[in-house]
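Hello Y.,

Per our agreement to keep a running log of every chain we model this quarter, I'm adding this entry. I've kept the format consistent with earlier entries: sequence first, then predicted structure.
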Amino acid sequence: MFLKKVSNFFSDDIGIDLGTMNTLVYVAGRGIVLEEPSVVALNRDTGKVIAVGTRAKEMLGRNPGNILTVRPMKDGVIANAEVADEMLRYFINKSRARYKLMQPRVLIAVPYGINEVETRAVQDSAKKAGVREVRLVEEPLASAIGVELPVEEPTGNMIVDIGGGTSEVAIISLAHIVEAESVKYGGDMMDEAIKDHMMNHHGLYIGERTSENIKKTIGSAYPVANLRQEMEVRGREVGQLGNSLPRTMTITADEIRTALDRPVEQIIGAVRRTLDKCKAELAGDLIENGIRLSGGGSLLPGLDKRIQEQTGLMTLVATSPLHAVVNGLGEMLKEPSLIFGQPQSMSIGHAYKR
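Predicted structure for the entry above:
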C-alpha cells in the first residue's frame, strides 16, 4: 500500500478513449477530467498547431484559408500520425496534475481487430506524447466494464458500442471477447448520410456541424412519438450552372430517418452476424441478459427498439453511454498491477480476470 501511494505521488495512471469524434481522459483517483473533440487546427503555411479540441472544432466550416482543421482519427484509428501526436500530447498534458514528477502510464482503448500497423501507430503516438508506459484494450471490453456488465462471470453478455468512426459488437464471457465484429459505420457515417441526402434530394450543401445538428434534432432509427417532426436548415444551394447562394428550407423527421437507414442497417447487420456465430449456451444467456447499447450513436432515438424488433432480444441503452469506454478504463486502472505489470503481448482481458 505504501509503495502504491508513493507511485501515485510521482506519476499519473491515465485512461484514454481516443475516438474519431471525441477524446475522453480518465485520471486514476480523479475521474473523467477531459472530454473534447478530436480536432486540431493548423496554420496551413507553417504547419504550427493553433488550437486543439473544443477551440479547434469551433473553427470547422468557419476557418479562413490559412487555417486547416484536421481530424487525425478515422474509423477509430490514427489516420494522421503527426497531428495525432500533437493532439495526444496536448490532451495528456492538460489532464495531468502539475506536481507529478514522472511521465504517466496510459491505457488506451482501440477498436476490436485493428491490425499490427494500426496498433503500432497508437503506441508510437502515445510514446511521442511523453508516455512512460502504454497498454491497449479493445473498446468492447472497456465499454462492457464501463456499463457494469458482469464480464468476469461465465455467462454471455452482448455490448454494442456505437462510436463516431466504428461500431463495435461483442459477446463477452469470463472477461474475454468470445465473438465480435467491428464495422466502419457510426456517428460519422450517419452525418455523411444526411449530407448526401440534402445534396441529392434538395441540392443543398451543408457542413459537418449542420449535419450533426440535424441528426441530434430530428434524426431517428424508428418512429418516435414525441420526436420533433421538422426543422429549418440553412445551407448553400448548388445551381445547375455551378453558382450557389445561401438558402433556408424545412426538412422532416421522416426523410431523415430514411436517410439514416443504410448506416443503421449496417450496424444491425453486425449485431445479427455476431449472434449467428454465437455458441448455443451463450445464446441462451443472451435471451435472459439481452443487448446493451453504448457510445454516442446509441442515443439515436428508436435505435434500441429497431434492434430489439429485428433480433427478438431485449435491448437497452446504457446509463451514461458516452462515457462507457472511458469509465471502463477507469475501473481497470483501479488495479494497475493487473494492467501495467504484465507483458505487452498479454491479453488485457486475461489480466483483468482476477
